């Protein structure tokens, strides 16, 4: 059986249906970025530290809210159900206060941590502006210019059901078939999924799905 992967293709700041979120304070607190132990390259954005406060663009809230932060914020409905599954890759759900037009909303939302793993991708589908790879993180000092599909070199070594890869970074959230099936079965809102092998990204021409 070949394992298929999927990516979340929602635009971060599209609120035609559901709200997007932005840090309430422009100067929100940050911690460290993760670094590769071998090559020293930065593998993540700076960690967002409490308080977790977000302004939402409208009152229609999906189970997933994307925006100015890495990853997403999720509803209590999603968190409670997810925690009953054996799915791997989301941890550390931290409560977020949501504001709309300066008013604190009563809805409970959480900011989970998404695993960052070094699942190597097939470089046949990647074009670089600068290519300087690393054996540990695959990324090294490389700068990607184009992605023409995300295909993993050794998918059977991947244990997580949702993750970022060090090679591509935190703008692309990857999901396993199991996670996709679960999400579809539960019908969570504000999720647009795409076959990872068909995912395209171009640094010069933003692609909307
Ligand atoms: Zn490295």
What fraction of the residues are assigned to beta strands by DSSP? 25-35%
| Overall pLDDT metric | 96
What structural class results from the helix and strand content?
A: mainly beta
Question: Which term fits the overall shape?
Answer: globular
Low-confidence stretches at least 5 residues in length (pLDDT < 50)? none
Question: What's the helical proportion of residues?
Answer: under 10%
Please give the number of β-strands: 15
Q: What is the H/E string?
A: EEEEEHEEEEEEEEHEE
What is the secondary structure topology, with strand pairs?
Layout: E1 5-8, E2 21-23, E3 53-56, E4 64-65, E5 73-75, H1 76-82, E6 90-100, E7 103-104, E8 109-114, E9 116-117, E10 126-130, E11 143-147, E12 162-165, E13 169-176, H2 177-186, E14 193-195, E15 201-202
Zinc ion binds at residues 36, 38-39, 41, 134, 136-137, 140.
Fold and architecture overview:
- The protein starts with a strand and ends in a 7-residue tail after the last strand.
- The protein contains two helices and 15 strands.
- Helix content is 8%, strand content 31%.
- The protein is mainly β and 209 residues long.
- The protein has one domain.
- A hairpin with a 3-residue loop joins strand 12 (162-165) and strand 13 (169-176).
- Bound molecules: zinc ion.
């Amino acid at each position: 059986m070949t394992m298929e992967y999927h990516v979340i293709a929602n635009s971060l700041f599209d609120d035609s249906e559901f709200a997007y979120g932005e840090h309430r304070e422009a100067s929100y607190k940050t911690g460290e970025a993760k670094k590769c132990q071998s090559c020293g390259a930065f593998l993540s954005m700076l960690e967002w530290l409490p308080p977790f406060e977000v302004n939402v663009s409208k009152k229609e809230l999906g189970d997933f809210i994307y925006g100015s932060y890495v990853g997403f914020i999720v509803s209590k409905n999603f968190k409670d159900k997810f925690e009953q599954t054996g799915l791997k890759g989301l941890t550390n759900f931290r409560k977020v206060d949501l504001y709309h037009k300066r008013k604190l909303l009563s809805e409970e939302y959480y900011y989970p941590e998404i695993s960052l793993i070094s699942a190597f991708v097939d470089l046949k589908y990647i074009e670089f502006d600068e290519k300087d790879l690393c054996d540990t993180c695959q990324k090294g000092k490389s700068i990607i210019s184009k992605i023409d599909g995300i295909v993993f070199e050794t998918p059977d070594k991947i244990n997580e059901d949702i993750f970022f890869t060090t090679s591509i970074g935190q703008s692309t959230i990857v999901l396993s078939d199991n996670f996709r099936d679960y999400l579809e079965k539960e019908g969570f809102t504000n999720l647009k999924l795409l076959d990872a092998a068909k995912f395209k990204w171009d640094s010069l021409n933003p692609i909307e799905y």
